[in-house]
Each structure stands twice: as C-alpha cells, then as structure tokens.
Amino acid sequence: EYSTASSTGLTSAQQSTIRDYLNSGGALFIASMELISRLGLTSPFVHDVLRVSDFTEDVSETAIEGVPGDAIGDGLATDLNYTDYTYLGILELNYSDTITPGNGAEGILTDPDTGEFTGLRYPRTGVDSPGRSVFLSFPLDTMPLGDRTTFLRRTLQFLAPGLNGQGSVAF
Predict the structure, then answer these.
(1) How many Cβ atoms from other residues are within 10 Å of residue 64's Cβ?
(2) Are strands 86-87 and 91-92 parallel, antiparallel or unpaired?
(3) Is 1 a residue whose pLDDT tops 50?
(4) Cα 85 from Cα 98, distance rounded (Å)
(5) First and final CA of the chain: distance in angstroms?
(6) Residue-by-residue DSSP string for 75-143
(7) 60, 116 in Cβ contact below 8 A?
(8) pTM above the 0.90 mark?
C-alpha cells in the first residue's frame, strides 16, 4: 500500500503509467486506507483514476455492507479485522476513510452505521469507458477470508468481463 520511496504512496510516474494503462483498456483494483490522504483530494489521480470526488478521513471503518443489487457488493456484510494493523501489537492502526464516488463511478460497499461508501467501481452501469477500476478505502485483508474470496471473484468478473472471475494457467 505505502512505498517508503515516496511520501505519496505513488510517484507521479506511477500515477501516469496507471492512468495510461486504464485509458488503453486496462483494469485496476486498489485497496488502501491512506492513499487519498497522501495524494490529497485535489490530485487528478484521485478524481480521474480512483474516481473519488470527496472523502472523510480516518473514520476507522469496523464493518462493511454491500450495496443491494450491486454486482460486486450485493449480500456482503461483515466486520473488519485490523489485528494485522497494530503498533507494537497494542494500538490498532485503523485509518480507513469513507468516500464519495466521482463522475461515472458507483458505490459498492458502505459503512452500515452511516451509509457512507467505503468502496466504489468505475464505470457505473450505463457509462462507457475503455478502462475499469475498483477502489476500497480500507485494507482488503481486513475482510474475513470467505467474504474476501467472494468479493475478489466478483471484482474480477467486473474488471475482466467474460472471464467469469476465473483465470487459467498455460504452460
């Protein structure tokens, strides 16, 4: 998630490469509880790639719920476990945010207490785009394994339509 080589998490060159990749038909999945904070809300990467128009910083998400009827989020509801995100094994480091989907994006996961979004996908249904993306404002590995597996399968189905969330290995 965070690179010690860059205080922003992604260098300008990395941001540009990702943007070009998506514009040429690529697909991207990012789960990060600090990327927007590090890049800043005014960053073109936040608006044009992550597709976030606004966010509330460090709300400390402890649970998520899928948006009913959404191809990725429907039926998901789980607590998040930050055990692997502690300082000296004592202090939980939960800096997750809530986010507002930007132009053409659609929320897929929410905070069950506030209804604010914690995940989004681009493009939303009815919007045409050469590239596709899914962004979570919390670490993926905080989801229990079963829910994480379901979420990733659905995410892959969205990011690579026609593959049904399955890959193949050729030798």
Answers:
(1) 27
(2) antiparallel
(3) no
(4) 18
(5) 31
(6) T-EEE---TTSEETTTEE-----EEEE-TT-EEEEE-TTT--EEEEEESPTT---S-EEEEESS-GGGS
(7) no
(8) no
